[in-house]
């Protein structure tokens, strides 16, 4: 039987703490749970009120990976859930609202993925996102060049962008928006992606077609669709190393000259939070939310 730990008055079963999940780093499940507990103060605001999809990898990144959208079997009754209308019909999804829920979810060994809207307002987007994905031999260095162009282009429309690593190869740009539907935000994001390709045709592609992507940065605008999700800030990723989707400063983006400069692992994030706080905290300030033109 899994040992029971009390977290803020809730009983949470934590299992297989010595199991190595990231063999390349010798990183165990216990260390996964410790990481999430350590960053809970900055992670939870990005999860709160957002229906969560889990990418589960209980045997590590080299094992079976499966995406869970519905409430998993065995979910404790104290974990908050919400009914969400999806294209395939209504479904009930988890809301990670507090530390006990976070520890329960982390015990499932998960990446956290969230929508660009909150429960109760699925028709209104409060986030705009671009996923910048480099096609080899392009790297995150090229993503940074595209990100800087997109930052200036968004600023011209009164929208302030913030950056984080994807935790994989690329970069994510996020902005707070208000007064728009997911459909409208998607249209706007696509138009900017097309404009970026027109401006930087040797560097950018806005279509997903794989044959077009080698050596270019795919500006994925589609994650703004209401049904789509993006890796949540501070989530661990199912990669060879315990990499994290970590917020970065614009100075770091501007100064990126090698792919390794913007690769952050679990152990790097706590010190960064101590130094910077949550670099994405302005996303929660409604006065800074942009209005699409």
TrEMBL record:
The keyword Transport does not apply. Gene3D superfamilies: DNA primase, PRIM domain. It comes from the Bacteria. Keywords: Ligase. Residues 28-279 form the DNA ligase D polymerase domain. It holds the Pfam family LigD_Prim-Pol. One of its GO terms (molecular function) is ligase activity. This is ATP-dependent DNA ligase.
């Amino acid at each position: 039987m899994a040992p029971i730990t009390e977290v803020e008055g809730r009983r949470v079963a934590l299992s297989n703490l010595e199991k190595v999940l990231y063999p390349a780093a010798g990183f165990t499940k216990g260390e996964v749970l410790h990481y999430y507990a350590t960053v809970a103060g900055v992670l939870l605001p990005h999860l709160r009120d957002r229906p969560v999809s889990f990418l589960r990898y209980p045997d590590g990144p080299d094992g079976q990976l499966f995406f869970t959208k519905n409430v998993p079997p065995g979910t404790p009754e104290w974990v908050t859930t919400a009914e969400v209308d999806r294209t395939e019909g209504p479904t009930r999804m988890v809301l990670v609202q507090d530390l006990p829920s976070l520890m329960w979810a982390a015990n499932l060994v998960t990446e956290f993925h969230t929508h660009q809207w909150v429960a109760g307002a699925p028709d209104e987007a409060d986030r705009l996102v671009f996923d910048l994905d480099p096609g080899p031999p392009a790297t995150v260095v090229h993503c940074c060049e595209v990100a800087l162009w997109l930052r200036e282009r968004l600023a011209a429309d009164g929208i302030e962008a913030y950056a984080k690593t994807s935790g994989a190869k690329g970069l994510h740009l996020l902005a707070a928006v208000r007064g728009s539907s997911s459909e409208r935000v998607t249209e706007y994001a696509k138009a900017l992606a097309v404009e970026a390709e027109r401006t930087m045709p040797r560097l950018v592609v806005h279509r997903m077609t794989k044959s077009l992507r080698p050596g270019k940065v795919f500006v994925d605008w589609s994650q703004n669709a209401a049904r789509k999700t993006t890796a949540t800030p501070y989530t661990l990723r199912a990669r060879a190393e315990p990499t994290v989707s970590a917020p970065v400063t614009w100075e770091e983006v501007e100064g990126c000259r090698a792919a390794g400069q913007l690769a952050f692992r679990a152990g790097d994030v706590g010190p960064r939070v101590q130094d910077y706080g949550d670099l994405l905290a302005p996303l929660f300030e409604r006065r800074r939310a942009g209005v699409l033109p």
